[in-house]
Design brief:
CATH class: Mainly Alpha
CATH superfamily: MetI-like
CATH architecture: Orthogonal Bundle
Largest sheet: 2 strands, antiparallel
CATH topology: MetI-like fold
Radius of gyration: 29 Å
Structural class: mainly alpha
Oligomer: single chain
């Protein structure tokens, strides 16, 4: 009798399920690498170079033994410390105030006028195309050209003094130079906010306004309860862009009023003045401080007001990515319904729409 060994089937490895997104990460990295390379060259490299330059000083100077030393010398944070001391500190804080003043005043005026322009352009009336084109013309003009145009208007014998019947010297030191910059900047860039807000207005369904009208909501309640909440995402992005742009204001006051004017000198003009005089270390220090200031303002703006700049909210929702469009439509319907219910409650009818 012979013993038999049971024959066992060869063990097979469990079949690994293939993930749907397997390999897409590598493909995405491959496709994005040219863009990342370009961004590294035009963005990251200049930032690192500016940070390095701010730690050095260039030109000729005497060393401890009285010999002339040429070239770059490492000074650490000396350029940053010099910004806040003595006459340089006074000039810096004056430029910091001017930069902040222009940002706050110009952006507030541009937001109010931009929303008004968007509401006008959104209305259906005869000749709307001509009105839209005429409103957007200032935004299409280059900044330097518009600065020269307003410089001609604000001449001593220019249009502004002729209309006001005065002899104000607009390009001299004082409140008039600040006012001229605010007027010129508001005239030029308010259409930019109007254009972005108009894009937001065109996404609001007409049925929402019809429901509000049926419930007896007046124009003010319709504007505050429907228009502004639904157009808020586009408006916040437009305001953020304008804040970042105005914090870097340079060409308009430089051409319109001129350099070395305490009334309109900004941080960008300070950095330019240092670089123009071949003091590249202090110029890089000014530019770095301005960069940190802009980054801090942008961070606080996004955190406090919740501007959805890169569609982060949509990405966090179920159905993001390929289903983003479906989620967006669903969210738009919900927002419209919510606005309609709000208007219904505000109008006192108590009827849900």
């Amino acid at each position: 009798m012979t013993a038999t060994t049971p024959v066992t089937a060869p063990a097979t490895e469990p079949k690994r399920k293939q993930r749907f997104d397997e390999g897409t990460g590598r493909l995405a990295a491959t496709l994005l690498s040219p863009t990342l390379l370009v961004l590294g060259v035009v963005v990251l490299f200049p930032i690192i170079s500016a940070l390095r330059e701010s730690l050095f000083t260039s030109g000729q100077h005497l060393d401890a033994n009285g010999f002339v030393v040429k070239g770059e010398t490492f000074v650490g944070l000396q350029n940053y410390a010099d910004i806040f001391r003595g006459e340089t500190g006074t000039r810096f804080w004056n430029a910091f105030y001017n930069t902040t003043f222009f940002t706050v005043v110009c952006v507030v005026l541009e937001t109010v006028l931009g929303v008004a322009m968007a509401l006008i352009m959104h209305k259906a009336f005869k000749g709307r195309g001509i009105v839209r084109a005429s409103i957007l013309v200032p935004w299409a003009i280059p900044t330097v050209i518009s600065a020269l145009l307003w410089k001609w208007i604000f001449q001593a014998d220019g249009v502004a003094n002729a209309l006001l019947g005065t002899q104000i010297l607009w390009s001299t030191e004082g409140w008039q130079s600040k006012l001229s910059v605010v007027l010129a900047d508001t005239w030029k860039t308010a259409p930019f906010i109007g254009l972005l807000v108009l894009a937001g207005l065109q996404t609001i369904p007409a049925e929402v306004y019809e429901a509000a009208k049926v419930d007896g909501a007046n124009a003010w309640k319709t504007f505050t309860r429907i228009t502004m909440p639904l157009v808020k995402p586009a408006l916040l992005v437009a305001v953020l862009f304008r804040i970042l742009d105005t914090l870097r204001i340079f060409d308009l006051p430089f051409v319109l009023v001129g350099p070395h004017k305490d009334s309109v000198e900004t941080l960008s003009m300070l950095a330019y003045d240092e670089a123009f005089n071949t003091r590249f270390g202090p110029a890089a220090a000014y530019a770095t401080v301005l960069f940190v200031y802009i980054a801090l303002v942008a961070y606080l703006f996004v955190k406090i007001l919740g501007a959805d700049v890169i569609g982060e909210a949509r990405a966090k929702k179920p159905g993001g990515g390929k289903g983003g469009g479906r989620w967006k439509r669903s969210n738009a319907v919900k927002a419209s319904a919510s606005a309609a219910v709000t208007v219904s409650a505000a109008s006192g009818s108590g009827r849900n729409i």
